[in-house]
Design a protein that fits this description.
Length: about 325
């Protein structure tokens, strides 16, 4: 987004490069700084080579805007500004066609004000130089800070867990880096909850459902501590959600988006079959209802299977438990 100081001779090559870097979006001030005149801009608009998106911000075609073009337009319109929240996360990982219908989230300095635009959500923050990658294309809040913002402002704790677990599960960051970023904040909504979840994610819970199994089924009912996200070791490549290795029991938590299609379902069943071949391991496939609606009953049933496989312990009743067998 950085351009050269005002030039005496129009630099067409630099302008073409800038348009390429910014997905065909450019600001009036950037064009002027490259030595072009206001009449040049008016001519480009009159010929429909450039189309105004906002006053002083143009795109070099007449069709619908891609997500990245909308993002660049929002950032250039409110400059200095950066992508924030979901938009910073999306830009870091996905092509411009994904999420193109959602609003663009940007952040500006707390002391500033900008014109509100349809489809653009403006947030305000302080110490932006510590949190923003100004030389990114387009400028955006650092990935860890964007994830923490989304988790802190999520409509529910389940959505907060999802934001944290998805970020780590995508391999774009780690729980340790997110924890470090949270420690650098003076104030953050849900701090204690978020840091607790991150500690669990660090120990291997990689989805909302996995975290729910840990905190609603396993811990409150005194089930043994398993391994998490262990390689399958046999058959198709993958990772076991929960593996009671000594007892030869695997728990697969079937609730993530990756389990939705028929192809994914087939791969799940193939891994179950592989587990049966792997020193006769048994696979328990558990979903949302068992974890969030019936955690006490689920704990009792898992404990029953574990005892049959040699576990010497017994299920512990939590305050929410009904009378269980």
């Amino acid at each position: 987004m950085t351009v050269s100081p005002a030039a005496e001779v129009p630099d067409q090559e630099a302008l073409d490069e800038l348009l390429g870097d910014q997905h065909g979006v450019v600001a009036r001030r950037q064009v002027i700084e490259l030595g072009f005149t206001a009449s040049y801009i008016r001519r480009k608009v009159r010929r429909r080579d450039w189309v105004p998106v906002y006053p002083g911000v143009y795109v070099n075609h007449t069709g619908p805007l891609t997500w990245h073009q909308r993002a660049w337009s929002a950032v250039l319109d409110a400059q200095p500004a950066a992508l924030s929240r979901q938009s910073a996360i999306l830009d870091a990982s996905t092509p411009p066609t994904v999420g193109s219908d959602g609003p663009i989230h940007i952040v500006i300095d707390r002391k500033r004000d900008v014109v509100r635009r349809p489809g653009v959500v403006v947030h305000r923050g302080s110490s932006l130089d510590d949190r923003v990658l100004w030389h990114a294309n387009p400028p955006r809040v650092r990935f860890e800070d964007a994830v923490l913002d989304v988790a802190a402002e999520a409509a529910s704790e389940i959505r907060a867990i999802a934001a944290l677990a998805d970020a780590v599960g995508s391999r774009r960051t780690t729980a340790s880096r997110l924890l470090s970023a949270s420690k650098n904040r003076r104030w953050m909504r849900r701090r204690a909850f978020i840091e607790h979840v991150l500690a669990d994610v660090h120990d291997g819970t990689c989805s909302v459902l996995e975290h729910g199994y840990l905190t609603r089924v396993e811990r409150p009912h005194g089930l043994p501590t398993p391994s998490r996200q262990e390689p399958t070791g046999v058959g198709r490549h993958g990772f076991r959600d929960v593996d009671y290795a000594d007892l030869r029991v695997i728990v697969e938590l079937d609730g993530r988006m990756g389990h939705d299609g028929s192809t994914s379902r087939d791969l799940d069943m193939e891994r179950d079959l592989d587990a049966a071949l792997d020193i006769e391991k048994v696979t328990l496939r558990i979903g949302w209802g068992q974890v969030f609606d019936r955690p006490c009953v689920t704990a009792s049933k898992v404990a029953h299977v574990l005892r049959r496989r040699g576990w010497a312990g017994s299920v512990r009743f939590c305050p929410e438990c009904p009378d269980l067998p």
